[in-house]
Design a protein that fits this description.
This protein has a 5-stranded mixed sheet, with helices on both faces. A hairpin with a 2-residue loop joins strand 3 (about 50-55) and strand 4. It has helices at about 25-30, 90-95, 105-115, 125-130, 140-150, and strands at about 5-10, 15-20, 50-55, 55-60, 75. Helix content is about 30%, strand content about 15%. It contains 5 helices and 5 strands. The longest helix is centred in the last third of the chain and has 13 residues, at about 105-115. The termini are far apart. The structure holds FE2/S2 (inorganic) cluster. The site of FE2/S2 (inorganic) cluster (FES) has 12 residues, from loops.
């Protein structure tokens, strides 16, 4: 299988990588662009550690090919803060201790942002439902929900 040029717009910057067409978006980010904030947990759509936004909607980056995401706006955890200013969801995770080991945190935060933005944080139950694809083996769930609640207002 040949290597091809893939153009991806990540956090506002267009980048070109040389990769096989079968490379997942997750591997493109981590292995080809050094954007290792996005985590690989299960690599088959079951843990949410790899959550990013594509055109403002969250996806599991392990489940999509990079080639399919050309021409779209991809946002990773690295693109959330504005310079030194953290995103409100990042601030809320800090304030509420929304993590322990931290491995699931980038995915949790990306899902949390989408949860509020897409109007799924009307109640804690709604938030838990929306966030149910993001697993936390440390069990920080109550604190994660508290963080999302704070941002949702
Ligand atoms: Fe993609 Fe687990 S690594 S859902």
């Amino acid at each position: 299988e040949g290597v091809t040029a893939l153009q991806l717009k990540i956090n506002g910057t267009v980048r070109t990588i040389q990769a096989e067409p079968r490379v997942t978006l997750l591997d493109a980010l981590r292995e080809y662009m050094d954007l290792t904030g996005t985590k690989k947990g299960c690599d088959h759509g079951q843990c949410g550690a790899c959550t990013v936004h594509v055109d403002g909607r969250r996806i599991n980056s392990c489940l999509t090919l990079a080639v399919m995401q050309q021409g779209k706006e991809i946002t990773t955890i690295e693109g959330l803060a504005k310079g030194d200013e953290l995103h409100p969801m990042q601030e809320a995770f800090l304030k509420h201790d929304g993590f322990q080991c931290g491995y699931c945190t980038p995915g949790q935060i990306m899902s949390g942002v989408a949860c509020v933005k897409e109007g799924h944080a009307g109640s804690d139950d709604q938030t838990r439902e929306w966030m149910s694809g993001n697993l936390c083996r440390c069990g920080a769930y109550p604190n994660i929900v508290a963080a999302v609640r704070e941002v949702a207002g």
